[in-house]
Request: fold
Amino acid sequence: MKRIFAKEHLCIGCRLCEVHCLVQHSKSKRIITAMTREKSHITPRVRVQESGQVTFALQCRHCERPRCLEACMTGAITRDPKTGIILHDADKCVGCWMCLMSCPVGAIQRGREGHVASKCDLCQGLDVPACVENCPNEALVFEERSR
Amino acid sequence: MNYLIVGNSAAAVGAIEAIRAADHDGRITLLAAEPDHTYSRPLISYLLAGKVAGERMSYRPADFYEAHGVEAHLGEEVARVDPAARAVTTAAGHRFEYDRLLLATGGKPFVPPIAGLDTGGVFTFTQWDDVRRIESHLAEHAVRDAVVLGGGMIGLKAAEALMARGLKVTIVELADRLLSTTLDAEAGAILVEALRCRDAAVCLQTTVDRVLSRGGMIQGVHLTNDFEIYCQMLVVAIGVVPNVAFLAGSGIATRRGIVVDERMRTSAEDVYAAGDVVEADDVLLGEKRPIPILPLAYRQGFVAGRNMAGLDECYHGGMAMNSIEICDVPTISIGRTTVCDNCSDEGCEVLVRRDAKQGIYKKVVLREGRMVGVILVGEIDNAGIFAGLIERQLNVEALKPLLLSSEFGLLSLDSEYRKHMVSGPGIEV
Amino acid sequence: MRKWLVEPDFLVERDLDRCINCQVCVRQCANDVHYYDEEGELVASDSEHCVGCHRCATLCPTKAISIQEAPLQFRPNGNWTAERIRAVYKQAEGGGILLTAMGNDRPLPVLWDSLLLNASQVTNPSIDPLREPMELVTFLGRKPDRVKVSAAADGHVRLETQLGPQLRLQTPIMFSAMSYGSISYNASLSLARAAREAGTFANSGEGGLHRDFRPYADNMIVQVASGRFGVDVDYLNLAAAVEIKIGQGAKPGIGGHLPAEKVDAEISATRMIPERTDALSPAPHHDIYSIEDLRQLIFALKEATRYGKPVGVKISAVHNVAAIASGCVRAGADFVSIDGVRGGTGAAPTVIRDHVGIPIELALAAVDSRLREEGIRNQASIVAAGSFRSSGDVIKAIALGADAVYIGTAALVAMGCHLCQRCYTGKCNWGIATQDPTLTKRLNPDVGTRRLTNLLRGWSLEIKEMLGGMGINAIESLRGNREHLRGVGLGDRELNILGIKAAGE
Ligand SMILES: Cc1cc2nc3c(=O)[nH]c(=O)nc-3n(C[C@H](O)[C@H](O)[C@H](O)COP(=O)(O)OP(=O)(O)OC[C@H]3O[C@@H](n4cnc5c(N)ncnc54)[C@H](O)[C@@H]3O)c2cc1C
Ligand code: SF4
Ligand code: SF4
Reply:
């Protein structure tokens, strides 16, 4: 399946990926509305990590054997059988943070949407996820890579 | 191929999902003692608290059995296993044959011999049925005070649920702190504080030695320290033990739990076991023991399922880890968190960060430069990275100044490790 | 001392209705213009250090930022313009030489805009480049005075004369010399890769050839300049051609200076000088004081490369450029590169950039005419440089007599340069003219390569269209064909030097 890969040496730390992720997951899908009125209850699922010169954007790796899915006690985390995307159902989630405790890259956050977890869904419905599409330096790519 | 799964919870579901991914045609039959569609066991406290409704209890969608081609017999308790005949017999006398059998019968509550326990208003807390029983007790009696015996994971969850129902709850714990197997004294004390703020009482270093009752109904409990607590219900939650009684006479080897090898095979041919019922490798202790947590139950079930379906996969062991949020204080503990506390070993090191104002307590336990445990209270973000580091036993000597900071993240790690994680396809741990 | 008379050049305006406080601008400005006000929880800007590079405005996802020219703070004056007054303030406060970068920005006449091309009508058919082959391939190098051919019995014609080494260009456009050091690793890499993809050449500049660019050496011209940085026999032999750098259009007559702080490990290895020492290029080559000296160096380089590569000479367009170029050809140069007054630079004294040298249009015409008159035009190719902004400029240069052109600024612009003219500060926000690792990352070499290749492709297609319109099917046939040019608004003298008729003639 296609996954998002970060090119660490090209990430410029602008965090536009976070902005566009938030907009994509907003109700209005309009940047100004999303980033002002909706911001407090939407979590950007991609997060730019930064330390000195090194920056990169991190989001769920959509693992072959997801630790979060193993750990999710409610069944809120599932794998889409067709696409392989690891999905999170906020309606089932109770915010027990078992997934957060298990994800070895730290891709799951306590969401602003309520007492629920939040993770990347590869922008279901878009051909190219919003963060990849809007990275000004093409530091994020969406591609199939063989093991 | 004729697969037979005994159990209907995390381990069983893991196995079914693994088998179906590898074998589209084999016949899968499931037997479960409980009558319910597969449900999330940990959610019973949320159900009791009124935070989730019955329809949100299910662990998998309503069409799970159908979609996975599973013939599910719910309410069929297995009474006997006969590996020589490759068959099991249920309490109702039905016989099921198998080519491959999975035993995923989980744990059952440990109930100590306490005088007077055999009275109305005393409950255990591991099943949906327990909630149903508590519900009818609450409906039929004027219950204002509850005692929870056991300050472990399940006891605390039960206590929290009863508090949410407006009861005055007292937790009785024999150890000197709550969650004594996973937390240290300081983190335990933070939980006690949080509970007391919500009007719960916590009695440590004591236990119930007598249940007081009148007319077949509980009136209170008597503690070993001679206190008496007035209550209208008691929840006994001092642990679960592997549910192996039905294996008597089967010849399948058990110790503390069912003995399995790294492919989740039991001593009997074509019989596999997974979940709370087994004792499997603990990567940190280097020995086999039951670790009754849901992530490992699912993983073991999955590994068993793959092997049952003819693939070859090993279970690499697990470790204790738990996440619990009591009274809005999120707490995560992973691995061995107290081993180095009063230890003069050269290689032992404990790093701690406290920030009382923000309600943060973080502690990392290191042995010979490798992390063996972590406790995170208040600030739990990126906890999984710690789990990865502990599981892989990576040397984190160089990271010590960063480990406890709020900025700690994947970026803090060695670039090869993080590139493997970020740029590598998926994560193989 | 506070520089209290120097007012900011630009005014940063933020549309608060649009600003979403995402802080992209804060993170992108290397000049610390934008900042996040923690208490007020909003982003604010302080225009003082804005250089007008537009990095923030470009990346701002809501287009909330606009960079305005600072409103005129002086009484209008056609002579003492705001720019002049500011320059005096700056020098009065700081002393010293004012520095700048990129090409001359004064409103000098751009003669390309006064030259117009011809097209076929009725009497001669134009050619449709989409239907018919159109040749842009160009060979740079010495051509023989006459050629001998022989015809075999089967009618096959063979060239008997042995040709000297030639560079084969798929399109008559090359990337001009920009050293690794003045521009970033990623920018250099993009140029080298794009040259290879487009079948043309990039020029290493005077800073040597980084080991990572050696695989691209077949598409690179290497320079030998007064500092001799990075020159050894491998360097010369790896490359496709060697160019002796005498002068640069932006700063004729003066040397160069890469400050010690930019000389990091990689640059030091590439330039073959100690780390953290100033890289000083002397104004003259200390071994060249005459055409004869130049001849010695040319032939030394030819010897070193076993006469296998063209050796050229790059000079700035100065007053007697024609005679100098003629001298270079007679000294043995296989090509002469001429850099006009609008040529770019990574750092130059403003006063030199703006006031020294002559426009490339006149210099090119003068050189071409002079070499023809002397009957030595065939002995060397002419490469024109100094601000080619479009394919129109390129094709006019070819009609005036150039064999090919060098583009520098246009290439940088293709990679994102916004011509803020602050290359010399090392804080290029576009990751081009900087060595700061947080900034160099901003130019993804894949993107840079793609954009450069696209530019060359676009210009080449346009050149084919224009050639077709003129009824010409090979760029060869346009070279020096000044009949295809007419001048508008030019005086007799200029028309004469350009060797063209006025429009309507
Ligand atoms: C209140 C509570 C809270 C918990 N919270 C957490 C938590 O936060 N995090 C965590 O990691 N873990 C938690 N756990 C533990 C977790 O629920 C178990 O680790 C997990 O359910 C184990 O799964 P399993 O499939 O091995 O067995 P179980 O879930 O115990 O399921 C056993 C299955 O076997 C069936 N069965 C048993 N005997 C027979 C028989 N003889 N014949 C047929 N069927 C039989 C049962 O009906 C059941 O379907 C909690 C448990 C409880 C009770
Ligand atoms: S959340 Fe973490 S564990 Fe789950 S699929 Fe994504 S990267 Fe893997
Ligand atoms: S927080 Fe939500 S998604 Fe994560 S494990 Fe718990 S229920 Fe599942």
Observations:
- Chain A touches chain C at residues 7, 9-16, 18-20, 31-32, 35-36, 39, 53, 134, 136-139 (CB under 8 Å).
